[in-house]
């Protein structure tokens, strides 16, 4: 009798869970309804996506008797709501749709921002509201979405919201050395390595994240770590063997470990 009751309860829980998942899936499909998945971004939207406006906050180390004031809220400034528009590339539409619930929860509940998906212009729009507490929340939210659109994982992009000293840097292979055809393909292969081994080694040694998007290289991390990762990638582009780059990365990882 008890086993039959437990089976009935388990069946009811599975049906309830299935109904909730169906409701969430239907709501997500309604948000992205009408979006052309095969639409490419024009030059203006690509330039807007690659334009980074990172706010640098200067930290003052004052004396212990220094007066500390509360953070200024958006409502206290008496300014109009700020807007940001982040275009969505074609290859990032599916990941955006899959992680839409997590992105909404992060921006709405934690950053107190208003978010919507503009299906006609194929972009995500965010703006401040009366409940927004942090003045820099709108810029952090824009940087978070830009990092996600450029190909970084959701967890790596969320780090921009939590840490103040994270930045993004983008450069092209042709900025370091002019390569064409098979030479460019081999260069990209040297940067990634077999099954991404070289790229992961650079990321772990320099404590950064790297995205290789065709001939563009996107690096996410703090200022010094970006410099180390950029030097390693540039060495590979210029033709240095991976073994020599690995030996430099060992020295870099030791140097970073001694800081903490």
From TrEMBL:
GO terms, molecular function: RNA binding
GO biological process, one term: ribosome biogenesis
Domain of life according to the entry: Eukaryota
Keyword terms of this UniProt record: Nucleus, RNA-binding
Location of the PNO1 second type I KH domain: 170-253
Pfam family, one: KH_KRR1_1st
Residue intervals of the KRR1 small subunit processome component first KH domain: 89-161
Transport is among the record's keywords: no
Annotated localization: Nucleus, Nucleolus
InterPro entries referenced in this protein's UniProt entry, alphabetically: KH-I_PNO1_first, KH_dom_type_1_sf, KH_PNO1_2nd, KRR1-like_KH1
GO cellular component: nucleolus
UniProt record similarity statement: Belongs to the PNO1 family.
The name this protein goes by in its record: K Homology domain-containing protein
Organism: Halteria grandinella
